[in-house]
Fold these 2 entries.
Entry 1:
Amino acid sequence: MSSIIHLNKIEKQYFMGGQGIPVLKGISLDIFKNEYVALMGPSGSGKSTLMNILGCLDTPTGGTYILNGKDVSKMPDDDLADVRNVEIGFVFQQFNLLPRLTAAENVALPLIYAGVNKEERIERAIAALEKVGLGDRSHHKSNEMSGGQIQRVAIARAIINNPAILLADEPTGNLDSKTSVEVMEIFGQIQAAGNTVVLVTHEEDIAEYAKRVIRLRDGIIESDNINTAQKGSPILTH
Ligand code: ADP
Ligand code: MG
């Protein structure tokens, strides 16, 4: 089976004051279709840097990244943006919804860029909201929803284009523990429905919802283990 994500000796340096500061120091990794991976590690270990590379928001300064069969390591920004739109759904810690728009309009945004007509946009947005348990909130704006609901809207937006991978950088970082569990269960359902999910968390009890746990330390992989005590009982949604 070929991997969706193949990293070979990925390096990243940030250049500051003419000096390169190494942050990722040779990350080699394969992630296969339908995996549910938690990326952990102390603050400053390079998790967000790696996620931004995985999500084609940034490029490595060394090594090779093959995403779904395409070498994206040295792609120009415009091509990278196209790949990102097709292959990647990204959820951030800060929810990043547009406050003036309803839940359905926020979820439908990527479809505007994809040139989908309005009727189909709304139909698909409502279907995506149903997948995250918010079918009855399609007309609500951010100020009419809880933090957990808003993050679920952001997840619905991230999956609207059926991306090859769903990436989330500390998606539960702004949520209380009960709401965090609800959000992790949504990710579990999305994975059970056939998607590949990679998320960052620094909380051990959140990582227990993933099937595989990769730990970074100081820019290298410290450990990479299958979680035999995976929590959550994902319900198939289709
Ligand atoms: P984590 O998400 O694990 O906390 P990051 O990937 O955000 O870690 O950061 C790793 C290291 O890289 C930190 O030392 C951070 O200060 C540095 N860093 C992150 N982004 C930049 C940037 N844009 N420019 C310079 N240094 C950065
Ligand atoms: Mg981070």
Note: The chain has one domain: 3-226.
Entry 2:
Amino acid sequence: MTGRVEGKVVLVTGAANGIGRAAALVLAREGAKIVAADLQDERGEGLLRELRAGGCECEYTHHDVTREEDWQSVVAGIKARFGRLDVLVNNAGIGLSGAVVDMAFADWKRQVAVNLDGVFLGVKYSLPLMRASGGGSIINVSSIAGIKASPNVSGYCATKGGVRLFTKSVALECAAAKDGVRVNSLHPGITETAIWDTLIGTVEDGSNGGRERGPTLDKFTERAVPLGYKATPEDIANGILWLASDESRYVTGTELVIDGGRSI
Ligand code: NAI
């Protein structure tokens, strides 16, 4: 019995927590070799131990998605160790909230750097190795905030909307090049992770309350999400798995929405 992504070499950014961590574990369970990358080394090393305990061939690397030199070295490292790259999960992201007039320019730029520059750099530096590997799948984790606006989160919406159309443009480039690389965006809805600690006041009544994200976010979700409950990181990771696998071989330039109906 082989896994759904057996033997594929996968790079996951922002892998130490939340959705990235779940994606690394789900992909490993289905036979992938994992390169997990993040800023939070202690959490990353913990993930590595868990992956190894499950028999996964894997490594963890400290990696800031906003730094061009980090991308150059992580891709060079993958080439040296594995000789190929089949899947890139551009997952690292931050969410900062506040009314546009109150938002510090530095915070705007930090979101652009992580959420948009990071995705651009990931595609730019991974694509040559993926093409040399005979094809692959790039999964850019956007958000329903890249499709549907919410108040007090304009910077986040701008970056996630940018990821959505950047993805489609690159998908066309790859299709025209006939390089076998598929490029898709994935749009999670409300998924309880640490990102909600900084997305304060982004729900319509401004009451999600940051660190009280548990009960207050639950209440908001009941009202705002047709299915009435939040996603788990694994719900999102299952979509990443499908886009990473050859089951989605005819899928490129699409936007996979996993949001319990929130954006309908
Ligand atoms: P999280 O906060 O649990 O995980 C984000 C990870 O990204 C952390 O491990 C963090 O260390 C890492 N990271 C942050 N800046 C980085 C940088 N410069 N370089 C490398 N790594 C960096 O949050 P979550 O929810 O797991 O977020 C993953 C992705 O999912 C993000 O792109 C986020 O925007 C997106 N998303 C999340 C939703 C949610 O409700 N949790 C909804 C829609 C999208």
Note: Confidence is low (pLDDT under 50) at residues 204-212.
